[in-house]
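Lecture notes, continued. The same structure-token format from the folding unit now serves as the input rather than the output. Read the line below as a description of shape only.
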């Protein structure tokens, strides 16, 4: 490394990268079932603070002083490049040239009726309405992907909702925005029996955050309207070993399923 830091023991998570001989770092005090970490804060914060050069910065290796979660690993895979975990890290606070990333998404509430959404047509209409907030442009790469997500409790009442806003910030998928907004408002895990309904099958980054934030991941259902044929939604934590047989829960349904399957088994 280019900086000679004094080594300290950290209770907090620390993640950093080096770009053009400058250190960019973030810290986080981990708590169970929160949609944040030092790595998540670093990646999201660089996109927000340095949008014009974020992709170049995030091609650099990220170093973390802790064992990263599936949420961290998947966010790096989708929105950054590479990461090394459990690295002995020096204290960045004693380096005056190190830049701290203090990202926290702004809390916003999307007005949704608390009336239960019990019909497929209702849900499709809610998602289409939310998708209208996605930015559109004549050039595809300047547009947001038209995807939305709604988080329902076990009574099918909406708890949070959002849409894709990843044109400039690759972490701002609809599911990530929905889950982080839910946590900022409620300050608690996604409850047992909740259902996350999405326009598109969640990618690995979104799947990792869903799993990380749930009080009991096996009791939560993720229902998608359209499958994603690309590699981003394949082999995620939601679909690579959490089937009823592999989880050992006889008679249970998979955590992730299509809207057609959800209707067939009576979830929606």
């Amino acid at each position: 490394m280019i900086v000679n830091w004094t080594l300290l023991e950290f209770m907090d998570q620390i993640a950093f990268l080096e770009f053009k001989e400058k250190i960019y770092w973030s810290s986080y005090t981990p708590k169970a079932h929160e949609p944040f970490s030092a790595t998540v804060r670093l990646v999201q914060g660089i996109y927000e603070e340095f949008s014009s050069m974020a992709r170049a910065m995030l091609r650099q290796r990220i170093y973390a002083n802790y064992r990263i979660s599936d949420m961290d690993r998947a966010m790096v895979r989708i929105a950054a490049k590479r990461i090394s975990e459990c690295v002995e890290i020096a204290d960045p606070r004693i380096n005056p040239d190190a830049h701290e990333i203090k990202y926290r998404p702004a809390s916003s509430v999307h007005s949704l009726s608390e009336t239960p959404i019990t019909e497929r047509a209702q849900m499709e209409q809610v998602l289409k309405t939310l998708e209208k907030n996605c930015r559109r442009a004549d050039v595809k790469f300047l547009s947001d992907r038209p995807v939305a997500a709604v988080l329902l409790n076990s009574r099918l009442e909406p708890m949070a909702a959002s849409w894709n806003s990843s044109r400039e910030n690759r972490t701002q998928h609809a599911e990530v925005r929905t889950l982080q907004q839910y946590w900022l408002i409620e300050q608690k895990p996604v409850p047992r029996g909740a259902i996350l309904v999405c326009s598109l099958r969640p990618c690995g980054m979104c799947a990792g955050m869903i799993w990380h934030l749930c009080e009991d991941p096996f009791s939560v259902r993720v229902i998608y309207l359209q499958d994603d044929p690309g590699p981003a939604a394949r082999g995620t934590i939601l679909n690579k070993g959490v089937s009823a047989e592999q989880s050992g829960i006889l008679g249970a349904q998979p955590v992730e399923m299509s809207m057609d399957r959800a209707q067939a088994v009576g979830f929606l």
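Point for the exam: The chain has two domains: 13-100, 120-265.
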